[in-house]
Amino acid sequence: MTQLTEKIIFAGSMGSGKTTAIKSISEIEPVSTEVTNNDTEQNDKELTTMAMDFGTLTLSDKSKLLLYGTPGQQRLSFMWSVISDGSLGVIILIDNSVSDPLASLDIYLEGFANLINQSKAIIGITKSDLNDEVDVLSYHQHLKSKGLSIPVFTVDVREKEDVLVLLDGLISLCESQYTLGE
Ligand SMILES: Nc1nc2c(ncn2[C@@H]2O[C@H](COP(=O)(O)OP(=O)(O)O)[C@@H](O)[C@H]2O)c(=O)[nH]1
Ligand SMILES: [Mg+2]
């Protein structure tokens, strides 16, 4: 039987926990890349560094997940659709400790609209232990006001189990044949 391979995307602003989430569940030492952008014409000679992460996770049915962390910077958002192409779905991580987490959410709702419209997205609220001013209900209300219904979980991505909850949620959402754990 052929072994299936699927791409999962971790998105979110800098500090939202993408690198940590991939590190928590990857079975290989995650690869983090720092790529220098030499497109001086576009960037006015400014050197741009973009960080990407990569890890893998093999599920109990032997299917393999390729875990990609997207560059968080909004100016690199053109990369998001390139990386998302052909993926199973996106896990959007929102840092709840920033001053306006819902504004940050809007950036990703727009950037990943394509996957969101296909119900291939899930939201993980991180760092609620640092700031719980904006709660899950506020996220739901915010999404509802935009006519969206996306599952939202409060997580600590330093905990493997929490990241698996997000993965499990995304996979069931995608009505995939895959199952996690035993
Ligand atoms: N207190 C707290 N720290 C967290 C949480 N999630 C991630 N972090 C920390 O936040 C920092 C930034 O995370 P990182 O994975 O580098 O974010 P990235 O920029 O999205 O890759 C790391 O030091 C994590 O340990 C959380 O839920 N609570
Ligand atoms: Mg990172």
Task: State Rg.
Answer: 16 Å
- Give the structural class: alpha/beta
CATH homologous superfamily designation: P-loop containing nucleotide triphosphate hydrolases
- How many domains? 1
Globally, the shape reads globular
Largest sheet: 7 strands, mixed
End-to-end gap: 20 Å
What does this structure look like?
The structure is a single chain. With 182 residues, the protein is of the alpha/beta class. It has one domain: P-loop containing nucleotide triphosphate hydrolases (Rossmann fold, 3-Layer(aba) Sandwich), CATH 3.40.50.300. It contains seven helices and seven strands. Strands 2-3-4-1-5-6-7 form a seven-stranded mixed β-sheet, with helices on both faces. The longest helix has 14 residues, at 160-173. The chain is globular. Residues 42-47 and 176-182 have low confidence and may be disordered. The structure holds guanosine-5'-diphosphate and magnesium ion. Residues 12, 14-20, 72, 126-127, 129-130, 156-158 line the site of guanosine-5'-diphosphate (GDP). Magnesium ion (MG) binds next to helix 1 and strand 3.
Task: Provide key terms for this protein.
182 residues; alpha/beta; Rossmann fold; seven-stranded mixed sheet; 7 strands; 26% strand; globular; disordered C terminus; binds guanosine-5'-diphosphate; binds magnesium ion
